Amino acid sequence: MTFAKLGLIEPLLRALERLDYNTPTPVQAQAIPAVLAGRDLMAAAQTGTGKTAGFALPLLQRLTLEGAKVASNSVRALVLVPTRELAEQVHANIRDYAEHLPLSTYAVYGGVSINPQMMKLRKGIDLLVATPGRLLDLFRQNAVKFNQLQALVLDEADRMLDLGFAEELRAVYAALPARRQTLLFSATFSDEIRQLAAQTLNDPLSIEVSPRNVTASTVKQWIVPVDKKRKPELFSHLMRKQRWKQVLVFAKTRNGVDQLVERLRGQGVNADGIHGDKPQATRQRALDSFKAREIQILVATDVAARGLDIDDLPLVVNFDLPIVAEDYIHRIGRTGRKGNSGEAISLVCADEVQLLSAIETLTRKTLPRHEEPDFTPDHKVPMTDANGQVLKKPKKPKKPKENSSKRSLGRWLDSAETPAAAPQAKPVRKVPTFNTGPRKRKP
Ligand code: AMP
C-alpha cells in the first residue's frame, strides 16, 4: 500500500516523501479514503499509530480542493485537542503535511496571551487546532466564526471528557453548522464517549487499529513494592543502580513533581518538571529540552501522559500510580513506540493497591513484582491479580474530612493537594453524562 494509492494529491505526497513516510499505517490506510469520501469517523487509535496524519492528510486535501476561500475570522476545519502540548504537536505535524498547499493553519490554546491569537485569526484560518477553553473564549469575543466550518476533529476525546471539557464541547457544538464532517478519535471507549459519538457523528465508519485497553507488548513492565516515604530514596537508588539515561517520570501531584525535581537537582541530576501550574512557555521549554536530550529526567503530572510524541524513550517510571487506570496505558505508551522496546517501572506502596488492581484488571495482566533488597516495605502491598482481586485486604483508608467531599477529584489529580483517602478504582470515569460534566481542571 502507498499513499498515492489512497488517492492523495501530489503536494501532499511530496511532503510525505520529505518526512520519510513511505507506507501508510493501518489507521491511515483505513481513515484516509473514508475521510476523502466525506464520511464521519469513530476511531479507536492511540498516539503513535499515525492517527494525526490519518485525519489531517485527507482534511487538508478536501480543504484544498473544495469549498470557498476562508473569510475573515472564519475557520474551515477545527481540530480540538485536550492539552496545550498536544495542540502544538498536532499543529507542527499539520504544518509539515501542508507545506506545499495554499492553506493557512494555526494553533490556539490557553496559558498564553489571547491578543496575538485574535490578530492572527483576523485573516481567517483554513485549519485551526485548539484546546476547547481558549477556543470558546475566542468565539465569545467574536474572534472566531464557524459559519464556514466544514469539518470537526475531536482528538483524544476521552481525555477531553476526563479533563472536564464536556461543557465547553457542548458550547462549541451549539455554535457549529449542523452539516459538517466529524471525526472522533479516542484511545478508550467508555459509555460517555459512545454517548458523545452518538450525539455528534452521522453514520460513522468505525476503525479500531489496536486492541482496546492493552499495553504495547514491546514494553517490559514491572512494579517495585516500597513504603510510601521511601519512594524518593528508592528512585535515586534504582537510577544509580540501573544507570538510567533518559527517563520520563510520572507523579500524582504538582507538589510531588516539584519535590522530586528539587531532590534530583540536589543530587546533581539534570532534571526538570512539567505540570499545570507552570507557565506554558516553561512547560514547552522543558519538554523540548527533554526531547533534545538536554534533560535526563523529566518529571510530570498526567498532563504529559497523553499524546506526546517522544522518540525512542527507553524508560517510563511511575513514581505514583495514576488515579485513572487508563492513564497507566497512556503513560507507559510514551515508551516502546513504533516497535522499539521499552521499560515501565512503577513504585507501588500499600496505599495504592486498589489503583494497582484497577490497572491489572484493565490491562488484563498481573504486573510482575521485583522487591529491591534494601527496600522491602514494612507495609506490604497486598497481592493482586488481573481479575481485579486484592488477595489480602489493604488497611482501611482514613475517613475523609467533612469538607473533602466537596472537592472534585479532578482538582487533586494535578494539584498540590493529596486526597484524604485512597480513591476507589477509576473514579473520574464517572462523568455523569456528556452534557453535565463540570470543568475539573485546565490542561
Ligand atoms: P501520531 O500517532 O499521529 O502522533 O504519530 C506518531 C509518529 O509517527 C509521529 O512521529 C509521526 O510523524 C510518525 N508517522 C505517522 N505516520 C507515519 C508513516 N506513515 N510513516 C512513518 N512515520 C509516521
Automatic annotation (TrEMBL):
GO CC terms: cytosol
Region (Disordered) residue spans: 367-443
Domain named DEAD-box RNA helicase Q: residues: 1-29
InterPro entries: DEAD/DEAH_box_helicase_dom, DEAD/DEAH_RhlB, DEAD_box_RNA_helicase, Helicase_ATP-bd, Helicase_C-like, P-loop_NTPase, RNA-helicase_DEAD-box_CS, RNA_helicase_DEAD_Q_motif
UniProt xrefs under Gene3D superfamilies: P-loop containing nucleotide triphosphate hydrolases (3.40.50.300)
Family affiliation: Belongs to the DEAD box helicase family.
Name recorded for this polypeptide: DEAD-box ATP-dependent RNA helicase RhpA
Species of origin: Pseudomonas wadenswilerensis
Encoding gene, per UniProt annotation: rhlE
